[in-house]
Design goal:
Blueprint (H helix, E strand, L loop, with lengths): L1 E6 L2 E5 L4 E3 L4 E2 L3 E5 L5 E8 L6 E4 L2 E2 L4 H12 L5 E8 L9 H16 L6 H11 L11 E4 L8 E5 L7 E6 L9 H11 L3 H20 L3 H20 L10 H15 L4 E4 L6 E5 L4 H9 L6 E5 L6 E5 L1
Parallel strand pairs: 7-9
Antiparallel strand pairs: 1-6, 1-16, 2-5, 3-4, 5-10, 6-9, 7-8, 10-11, 12-14, 12-15, 13-14
Helix pairs in contact: 1-2, 1-3, 2-3, 5-6, 7-8
The structure holds (3R)-3-hydroxy-3-methyl-5-(phosphonooxy)pentanoic acid.
Length: 320
């Protein structure tokens, strides 16, 4: 059977950094994200008894690096004893560069694989399975503003606010292309084991989550901006203080932050966030998107700009 699903990446405003259980991939902290509309990953999964091995093609090229994680995801969704799969992926943004490509890829794979295997699973079960492959992927099963709760034994996500109830814009400044040096799982473990700030990071997360939840409920952009920037800089401080240090930023990343500060000084409704990569995501009020886009595009060293509104949950496109 063959099924195709599409999912959008999500960007965390209150970050997931650290695992409570490596085996089950359970996060040590809750997180809140926004699902994007204009960036996507489409996954077509075909289960075929005649195949002897799983295959993956991304945008027309064979991809061996992602294959082990993909096969593990298929084992989880379909079962360990299963036909091999031919997987064809299409993605309209750079992969493995801190743009949450694994979130949309595993969310779409989970939905497509479940349907290809003839399993009818609810969204909570799909989010649990996607979250086992990539923690942040669980959030792409939900649209708008989504919260991944900090639970002891399962992955639980809910929508705090739909995309059309607070339609913010996102401008992404690409400062570097190519895959990141350290994957997020390895980097999280280094932080957990060595960062002197890690325990405090985990301890204070519930306060940040509550502040962000309140800001979203009240559509209070200033409050959301302040807590999201604080939480992002705190996560990177945890990384920087790790041994060895984990630094995803480059000099252009820093310059983009200065651009955002200048825009804020001029009264624009905008704030930044940065994930496990050097790209800067500027979240803004729709009326300021052109100004934010132009200022980031004019920032020295910025390679490219992407823009997106907020979008909806991962979904099935076709099954045959
Ligand atoms: O889900 P992973 O393993 O790709 O980790 C995501 C980590 C961050 O992007 C830095 C934060 C987040 O909550 O998305």
């Amino acid at each position: 059977m063959r099924a195709t699903a599409i999912a959008q990446p999500n960007i965390a405003l209150i970050k997931y950094w650290g695992k409570r259980d490596l085996e089950r991939n359970l996060p040590a902290v809750g997180s809140i994200s926004i699902t994007l509309r204009d960036l996507f990953t489409e996954m077509q999964v075909e289960l075929d008894e005649r195949l002897t091995a799983d295959t993956l093609a991304v945008n027309g090229s064979v991809d061996e690096t992602m294959l082990p994680r993909l096969s593990a995801c298929l084992d989880l969704v379909v079962g360990r004893v299963r036909p091999r799969a031919s997987v064809v992926s299409r993605c309209n943004f750079p992969v493995a560069a801190g743009l949450a490509s694994s979130a949309s890829a595993f969310a779409a794979t989970t939905v497509a694989a479940a349907h290809a295997a003839g399993k009818s699973l609810g969204v909570a079960a799909l989010a649990n399975l996607a979250g086992r492959s990539s923690g942040s992927a669980a959030r792409s099963l939900y649209g708008g503003f989504a919260e991944l709760e900090n639970r002891e034994s399962e992955i639980a996500v809910s929508t705090l606010c739909e995309s059309d109830q607070w339609p913010l814009s996102v401008v992404i400044a690409i400062t570097e292309t190519g895959p990141k040096a350290v994957g997020s799982t390895e980097a999280m473990e280094i932080s957990r084991k060595t960062s002197p700030f890690y325990a405090n990071w985990v301890e204070r997360q519930d306060d940040d989550l509550q502040t962000a939840r309140d800001a979203i409920r009240q559509r209070d952009f200033e409050q959301l901006a302040a807590i999201a920037e604080h939480n992002c800089l705190k996560m990177h401080s945890v990384m920087w203080a790790s041994r060895p240090p984990i630094v995803y930023w480059n000099s252009v990343t820093m310059r983009c932050l200065q651009t955002v500060r200048k825009l804020q000084g001029g009264g624009a409704g905008v704030f930044f966030t940065i994930d496990a990569g050097p790209q800067v995501k500027a979240i803004c009020l729709p009326e300021h998107v052109q100004e934010v886009r132009a200022a980031l595009a004019a920032t020295e060293g910025v390679i490219d700009i992407m823009e997106s509104g907020l979008g909806d949950a991962a979904r099935l496109v076709e099954v045959s």
